[in-house]
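Q: Hi! First time doing this. I have a protein sequence and I read that you can turn it into a structure. Is that right? Here it is:
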Amino acid sequence: MNKKYKWTIDKQFDFCFGHRVWSQALDTKYSLDGCLACRHLHGHQGKVKLFLGANDLNKGMVTDFKHTNIFKKWLDDVMDHKFIIDKNDPLIHSMCCEMIFEGGLDDAFSHLNHNQEYNYWTFKEGYVEEVLATSNFHCHSDAEKQAIMEKYEGMVLVDFVPTSENLCKWWYEVANIMMNGLGIDTVAVEYWETPKSHCRYQPE
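A: Yes, that's right. Below is the predicted 3D structure, encoded as structure tokens:
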């Protein structure tokens, strides 16, 4: 049963990002059509609400709302205007074609930075330029080379299908690690991928 709190506060954050739900499947009896739109590369104006709780107040507060700035900064730095993709997505070979041109996917993934605390991967700075300089992949212009580098700068790799439910759980885990340093309980995270589509994650 979920823990009860005398007080809860919440703070809302907005950002834009893209993803692809490669595992999407539909029961057309209920969906009324078979259009698998979430399998497409697409973006959202995301809205996240972070809930914090306490049974005893510190100076009259659960915590200062400003303490949620650390979570906002992480969303801005890691999520905003980025593309979130599952490392196991069958499309990863195509999306990372310049990186795996020579050595294959395992070699490309060996050049990722893993953020162990918050559990996601990004390509190491400078690796794309190194690959483009040493592989047989030919850039036709400096503008193409710059665009390829920007593509990888904008990718965040995770080890799950980035559905609303999985993203909501991930953001909860990140916030929970952050707020633990203040001795504050993270109660839940809610997420709106559209104004009408909402998800809540709250562990038992």
